[in-house]
């Protein structure tokens, strides 16, 4: 599955637009991770526990986006974007969304 943030895929032609597609995940740090993050926030700087959680959540959202696009019959997603939100005090929602398409490789001479 080809996933790009651009409207067009260099070297490909969009043969058919299937429609919107998304992948969503909601994550929470465990009690230990939240405790360590709270301690780090007192000192300042990067909160590694949350950075790792959000990187992992983005990967899972893209995986779900790709799987959903494939189930729709697509072989690519264009204009992929992320959105995120906090749910309560300890959960983060990450959504990857874009347009599912069927793209074909252009023949080169």
Question: Could you explain how this protein is built, in words?
Answer:
- The chain has 109 residues and is α+β, with helices and mostly antiparallel strands.
- Helices cover 34% and strands 42% of the residues.
- The chain has one domain: Hypothetical protein apc22750. Chain B (Translation Initiation Factor IF3, 2-Layer Sandwich), CATH 3.30.110.70.
- It is built from 2 helices and 4 strands.
- It has a 4-stranded mixed beta sheet with strand order 1-3-4-2.
- β3 and β4 form a beta hairpin.
- The longest helix is centred in the middle third of the chain and has 24 residues, at 48-71.
- The radius of gyration is 18 Å and the shape is elongated.
- The two termini are 25 Å apart.
Structural class per helix/strand content?
Answer: alpha+beta
Number of helices: 2
For the record, the count of structural domains works out to 1
The low-confidence runs, each spanning 5 or more residues with pLDDT under 50, are none
> How many beta strands in the DSSP annotation?
4
Question: Describe the biggest sheet?
Answer: 4 strands, mixed
Please name the fourth-level CATH homologous superfamily: Hypothetical protein apc22750. Chain B
State the oligomer: single chain
N to C succession of SSEs: EEHHEE
Helix content: 25-40%
Rg computed from alpha carbons, rounded to a whole number of angstroms: 18 Å
Query: What is the percentage of strand-forming residues?
Result: 35-45%
Q: Reading side by side through the largest sheet, how are the strands ordered?
A: 1-3-4-2
Amino-to-carboxy terminus distance: 25 Å
